[in-house]
Amino acid sequence: MKIKDFGKRLVNSVLPVLLAFVIGGIVILMIGENPLDTYGILLGKSLFTAKGFLNTLHYASPLILTGLAIAVTFKANIFNMGVEGQLLLGAFFAGIVGTSLPASLNPVAARLICLAVGILCGILFALVPAILKAYCHVNEMVVTLMLNYAMIKVLEFLATGVFRDYSSGYVCTPIIKENAMFPRIGDSKLTMFFFVAIFVFIIMYIVMNKSKLGYEITAIGKNPEFAEATGMKVHKKIMILMIISGALSGLAGAGYMMSEQFKYTLSFSGNPGLGWDGMLIALLGGHSPIGVLIAAIFYSALKTGADHINLYSTVPKEIVSVIQGLIILFLAVKFVDEHTNIRERLLRKKTSKPETTISEEA
Dihedral of CA 340/343/349/354: which sign? Predict the structure, then answer.
């Protein structure tokens, strides 16, 4: 049964990607370029060169964490849409603490403090919708969506006023101290933050697949009323899952601040944002930790390879945005669900053919 479910999830994840690449290939043909050459550049430069692959892993680090933050709640049918806001809040205050720490402080201690601040901020942000959902039965999707925009405006106010670095030519906070930064490995952009993300991934894999909480997540996702009837305290589990999701989001923001950005800007998370990218990754990975890891690396490869397309072909790098949009579109279609059993249908057709021919002869 598990093999069948895995096969269905695989089809629902791989087929949207293939269809998106096929339609993207048609667009590339209309431009007058060879799709195979373009995709060769896109994936070859980001996955099949040493430096490109390490850079891909670097950009995948926050995506792994935001993907897990979405997956752990979505699997329980709890829709935490506030990952983007939790990430930004964690990043902002991790950056502020990173600028305030003494330069003489031990680098390991400085980094741990900044990461802890990011995690704490993510948890505090997630607690508001968690309490409203668990104890007041307020729709968490609406609350978290609205809080995202409120948080973006609050951080914009703080970045342009209270914490602004006036020595810079644009709106940003001061650069964090060097002892709070994750140093790069070799000539690539990869830092120790990737290994932090992998460590968290291993923990989440054990929690979601090998622990009592993982079973409870599945039970709540399938039937929360039945889970409550069996003695499970669903409201407490909702609180725990939202706290875990907020912690992962805050950690992603803090790590991205310390390994890539080093200061908070109004475009810190990019467009559409690392939190929203995490939602696509969770859907592409089928809310499975291993699926999220593979999807995050693949999605990061698309973003890393996009910069090389302009250099080596006449195809604009916006083709990657088209492919990403098509993946989202096709992910909305469940090509195979739990009620689909192709093997049984084929067997029925085979057995029904002789019966129909016998009845016709009679």
Answer: negative
* Of 124, 339, 123, 118, the residue nearest 245 (C-alpha): 123
Residue 81 is predicted with a pLDDT of 92
What is the reported pTM? Answer: 0.89
Please return the burial class of 102, using the count of CB atoms within 10 Å of its CB with bins 0-12, 13-18 and 19+: exposed
- Whether the predicted pLDDT of 278 surpasses 80: yes
Residue 352: inside a domain, yes or no? no
Cα four-point dihedral sign 113, 116, 121, 122: positive
In a domain, 321, yes or no: no
Range of the domain at 148: 59-293
CB 289 within 8 Å of CB 208:
yes
Q: Is residue 156 part of a domain?
A: yes
The residue-averaged pLDDT of 34-50 equals: 91
Which residues lie closer than 8 Å to 235 by C-beta, 6 or more apart? 134, 135
pLDDT score, position 169: 82
- Please name the residues in contact with 153: beta carbons below 8 A apart, sequence gap of 6 or more: none
Domain count, the chain: 1
Q: pLDDT of 314-334, one tens digit each?
A: 888 889 889 988 988 888 776
* Domain assignment present for 104: yes
**Distance separating alpha carbons of residues 173 and 94, to the nearest angstrom:** 11
- Percent of the chain having pLDDT more than 90? 61
Runs of H (alpha helix) within the chain: 2-31, 35-47, 50-74, 83-100, 107-136, 140-160, 193-210, 212-222, 224-229, 234-256, 274-284, 289-312, 319-331, 342-361
Residue 126's nearest CA partner among 88, 91, 83 is 83
Phi, psi of 172 (to 5 degrees): -165, 165
- pLDDT tens column, 169-207: 888 999 999 999 999 998 889 999 999 999 999 999 999
DSSP-derived secondary structure for 288-305 = -HHHHHHHHHHHHHHHHH
> How far lies 325's CA from each of 9, 23, 298, in Å?
20, 11, 15
Give me the sign of the Cα torsion angle 198, 200, 202, 208.
negative
